[in-house]
User: What shape does this take?
Amino acid sequence: MSATPVKDGSTSSSDHPVALEVRAARKSFGHVTALQGASLTLRRGEVTALVGDNGAGKSTLVKVISGVIQPDSGSIHVDGEEVTMRDPQAGRKKGIHTVFQDLALVNPLSTTENMFLGDEIRTKIGPVTIPWLNRRAMRRETWRALGDLRVTTLKDVNVPIEMLSGGQRQSVAIARAVRERAAVVLLDEPTAALGVSQAEQVLELIGRLREQGTAVMVISHNLREVFAVADRIVVMRLGRVAANFSANDTNEEEVVSAIVGSRREPEPEATEGGDQ
Amino acid sequence: MSSTATAEVSAEQPRRRLPQINLGRAGELLPLAVALIATVIVFRVGSEFFLTARNLTNLLVQMAPLALVAIASTLVIVMGEIDLSLGSVAGLAGAFVAIELGHPGMPWWGALALTLGLGLCIALMQGIFVLFGKIQSFAVTLAGYFIWYGVQIGILGSKAQESVRRAPIAELSSSRLSTSVAIGLVIIIGGGLLAIRYFVNVRDSHEAKMSHTRLLLTTGLWAVVIALLVWFVSYLKDGGGVPLIFAIVMGIAAIVWVILTRVPFGRHIYAVGGSEPAARAMGIPITRIKLITFAVAGALAAFAGVVSVSYTGGATTSTGGGVLLLEGIGATVVGGVSLLGGRGSVWGAFCGALLLAAVQNGLALLQLQFYVVYIAQGGVVLFALLADSAIRHRLVRQ
Assistant: This one.
């Protein structure tokens, strides 16, 4: 490692208990090495921002954590226990929920239906569960999840979500994670498609996730937002974690230079990976 | 229901909400109902015979194959695929059932089961090509359209198969329900559903935010609809009564509707059609859902073929085929089912089939030349779609 303020993700100190840990994850796609040993720690009740230039490996890291892709080497630990996830469903079962950039919402379906997509509440008749939607219970749970996040702009959970605004849709996507009582929530560019006031609302929601003791990781290009919401800022560069700041002890300039790698960095082992 | 949520949201262009009179999802059928009423008026003016009980019962029998193909096509289109082979599968099924019935030892139910199984297997096979061969369903089923038509001609030989005159397959389209039974069914089923709907809404009123006046209003509207149905059924008595096959098709539509709206599997069909990546991300078993849906649609198309030959009394090379297919897809689209997937209801497709069959029937009564029938049908499809699109775009800003 170089002499820059690089601290390995796993060594960051905090009182918050560790929820998830990635150790030295590597992943290459053919000749392209996307991750060259990235390590990261996410803690309960803490918002970690993941920043970095395009192609720095942020998305690959998120996909590894959420189970969309599997690392070639390295390990993932949830609550101190090593886990392997074959697909995002396995990730969800471990309490890792990803709010993807494209939201993974189905436009013609309602808020309630989206909230329970693939995990519907079925009706019970005595001890027997029949394949019949318990729409009432689903509605109630939906309102509860929205209430936990204090989402007030949504008045009707039965209309197709294509009739909602971008911010409301993002609220639905985040509320889905709350509904599942996810321990770790990953948000990929949660405000990218939103106007200013709606982006503000989403940042508030992220704050509420933190209050509830969720470990949150946000990918963002918007450093102003990163500083507004994050406790820790993790900078990725060339497939590894290049810097790990506490948001209170750093500034935009420092983060930017870590992103572009401009400050006295001897191009750390860039030729070493599998990319040549 | 407030149209603007909060000041913050309204700054971001709030989307319009559904209009105040809320018939539930049934409100989507409104443009279709208007088109249907307009059609009825036009033909009533054009022909004394159009609204007679005899013609109407005949119309309800005539529409059965079309409605079945429309239901099948709805299932496939809602999940974001298309099946162009439905008409040819129907034609092949008609020929197949006629030949099977020709074997003296073959019971009618055996022939029927084999035929439905044939449709199911054909569609399943095409589904496997689509899902595992990674070929678009348009291409696979277009090939199927030619292939199954070829097989149909091949197994029929040169002469028409008339063994379908054997009971009870022949009775499938000639039987009528006794009027008192039909009225009883309408009142028991319609009234029962209405009562359930009412009590569920009362129970949920605190969370659904539906005012009691509006609940009474919509309940009253549905009661009027049921009363009209009872009147219609008794009106059909002079024409021989409600056709059995119409009741069967209604029943199939109802079952499909229940599955699509109340069973997780059905909602997953909408989810897959609405956004396949989202459905995949949420762990919905896309391959399984698509295979089953293709297969069910194939079986429904095969049944359409059986009904078709039962009505015409014999299987020919013109049973089923491209016209039935395109009318079926036309009915589906006219019924508000989006070709992009994820949107639409089976009742819409059902009413679309009713509309197209009415136009066909009415134009035949006017004794216009045949080419006019096609042009007029095309016009109706286009007009219904324009009306639907106009209303939809006012509701949903995309």
Remarks:
- Residues 234 and 244 of chain A are 4 Å apart (CA to CA).
- The radius of gyration of chain A is 19 Å.
- Helices of chain A lie at 58-66, 88-93, 111-115, 135-148, 166-179, 196-211, 223-229, 252-260.
